[in-house]
From TrEMBL:
Protein name per Swiss-Prot or TrEMBL: Magnesium transport protein CorA
Taxonomic lineage: Bacteria, Pseudomonadati, Pseudomonadota, Gammaproteobacteria, Pseudomonadales
Native source species: Metapseudomonas lalkuanensis
Membrane topology note: Multi-pass membrane protein
Keywords assigned: Cell inner membrane, Cell membrane, Ion transport, Magnesium, Membrane, Transmembrane, Transmembrane helix, Transport
Annotated catalysed reactions: Mg(2+)(in) = Mg(2+)(out)
Locations listed in the record: Cell inner membrane
One GO cellular component term: plasma membrane
Length: 328
């Protein structure tokens, strides 16, 4: 699918395109969303550039992801989507940047692309060239990642409060509390997975910005270069923030697993105490359950109540001992 973004009255407006139909005048941005081979070939022939295939875009070698050919920059970034729906997916986006136009090739719906259309209407004066559109798109990507990190941080704060709340340590835990901790472990795992993909996107965007800055004389103005460096600084600060969040997740995971172990040990402790309490009565019952002929107590009139009394006393004494020691 081809989308053209051309200036009309100083504002970028979107229109759909078809292979064989001329590119509208004053087009600054061409967005290829899951393009068919004939669509990519048409745009490439119309602009005199090579539009990489999907197989070429997903290659991991840096020379295939970042390169320059005849004054046109080809830069590939791996971006994440679907975090709000808890289904994070990484997809590759190719930026083909020249002084007169920007071409993006992508194979997934990415929210930060949709944000731009609103920005075109609100700030038309800042989207009047290919470099401004490219930098605005990069800024939208970084802003979206920052928003996702803020959501994750709030969720981590909520989980931290649930794990380390005073009520959990001061009162007996209700039924299902261990299941709650298991849910915390699952949530931490989901956050860690999303964080990995966000870090990958940040590192990828950092490489794209660094590479575009290195070739700034081909297409970037001085204000554009300053803005690009500002976005790059934001990327570096977010990478540091992600590292801090990884440490927090690791700590919460370790603490949660420790609490689960403590609760499991408490259950085992109850079973161990119960076994010790019932062991002496069991021993008494076992002795007097034997049927040997020469057992003096068999003909004793008080043998039965005495045996029952021994069982009760043998259970009470260990209980009193444990209570005195404060073991439960």
């Amino acid at each position: 699918m081809i989308h053209y973004y051309a200036q009309d009255g100083g504002v970028l407006h979107a229109s759909a395109g078809q292979p064989g139909v001329a590119i509208p005048a004053a087009t600054l941005w061409i967005d290829l969303m899951d393009p068919e081979p004939e669509e990519a070939a048409f745009i490439g022939q119309s602009l005199g550039v090579e539009i990489p295939s999907r197989e070429a875009i997903v290659e991991i070698e840096e020379t295939s992801r970042l390169y320059q050919h005849e004054g046109t920059l080809y830069m590939n970034a791996t971006l994440v989507s679907g975090l709000r729906e808890q289904r994070p997916i990484s997809s590759d986006v190719m930026f083909v940047v020249a002084p007169d136009y920007l071409v993006t090739v992508r194979y997934a719906n990415l929210p930060f692309f949709e944000y731009l259309e609103d920005k075109f209407l609100r700030e038309p004066e800042t989207h009047s060239s290919s470099e401004q559109i490219f930098l605005s798109l990069c800024g939208s990507v970084v802003d979206h990642i920052a928003d996702m990190l803020e959501l994750m941080q709030r969720e981590l704060d909520d989980m931290s409060g649930a794990v380390f709340s005073e009520e959990r340590g001061a009162a007996p835990q209700p039924k299902g509390s261990r299941a709650d901790l298991q849910q915390v472990v699952k949530r931490l795992g989901r956050n860690n997975s999303g964080l990995v993909k966000l870090r990958e996107s940040l590192i990828s965007m950092g490489r794209v910005l660094d590479y575009s800055n290195a070739w700034s004389e081909l297409w970037l103005s001085e204000p554009g270069l300053d803005r690009s460096r500002s976005i790059e600084r934001d990327v570096r600060s977010l990478v540091d923030y992600v590292a801090k969040m990884f440490d927090e997740i690791a700590f919460l995971l370790s603490a949660t697993l420790g609490l689960i172990d403590i609760e499991q040990n408490s259950i085992i402790k109850v079973f161990s105490i119960a076994a010790v309490l019932f062991l002496p009565p069991t021993l008494v019952g076992t002795v007097y359950g034997m049927n040997f002929r020469s057992m003096p107590e068999l003909d004793w009139a008080f043998g039965y109540p005495v045996a029952l009394g021994l069982m009760v006393v043998s259970a009470i004494l260990p209980y009193a001992w444990f209570k005195w020691k404060g073991w439960f």
